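Board notes, transcribed. Complex of a protein with nicotinamide-adenine-dinucleotide.
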Amino acid sequence: MSARVLDGTRLAATLRDELHPRVAAFTAAHGRPPGLALVLIGDDPASHVYVGSKRRQGADAGFRVDIHEHPDTMPLEDALALVATLNADPGIDGILVQSPLPAGMGPEAARRVFDAIDPAKDVDGFTAENVGRLVQNRPGLVACTPAGVIELLVRSDVRIAGAHAVVIGRSDIVGKPMAMLLLHRHATVTIAHSRTPDLPALAATADILVAAIGRPGFVTPAFVKPGACVVDVGINRLTREADVVEFFGAASPRLASFRARGSTLVGDVHPAVADVAGAITPVPGGVGPLTIAMLMRNTLQAAEWRVSQG
Ligand code: NAD
């Protein structure tokens, strides 16, 4: 058996198409486009790539996108002052501070910076206000990655109500909001993590299995009930050819692309799972593209809500 592939790239394009008329209507009605501020502190290479994609897609969607780039020596107080300025800027509807923040800013930096963002502009859905709204199933801005997963499941006709969903990973940005969103759609939800005993046996009871761990190929066929829907949130970079061969086999076309680029992205789900699962999200091309598409949707939503509240 080979699983149905849930194509996140294609759905992301559909979501972008759906935004265009709403962005045009907003811009015509208010004399300005929705505004997104991207804050990038430090020189993490992956963060630069992510912020570049967000800038491009925001501009393509018709948004105003401002990038605030700062060195990793930026004091925390300056970052907080920047957030305060963006909070007060009437042309900015969404503020995204790219994670991770530089270690030199201190262990509390991320929490303090995210807490400083006006919840009405918190397009990542990380503030306590928006997390609380999510838990209570009230309208609010929801973390983009899990929101994208739900969009993919719903539009792929994966049955959520009544299903047993196992979410592996309990982070604030993926695992926990993912579990809440599945619960609100009437799944029976189990959150598993690094201290869950006998994880493969538990995972193999899932109708929907979400892997958000950050370990290449962690989820093997032993974790998967035949026919289950497997969502692979993980993004891991392999840089050693031996690892690529072990992951995909020596005959895989991935080897050629690895040799051309020097690295390749893989998920938390081992490729052999495709022989057991009923549906699966690929990496790349699954959850990743949806995250940015949902960021755009959140920004437009934030803009619409802000103007409607005067
Ligand atoms: P995280 O490190 O904050 O959390 C990882 C979670 O995995 C933890 O809750 C931990 O308990 C669990 N875990 C770790 N080892 C485990 C083990 N041996 N057994 C069971 N559980 C274990 O990571 P995160 O920010 O939630 O990200 C998870 C993965 O998703 C990463 O690969 C990240 O790159 C990726 N990610 C992808 C997107 C996207 O757009 N597709 C967005 C965010 C994160």
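The mean pLDDT is 97. The CA atoms of residues 168 and 192 lie 5 Å apart.
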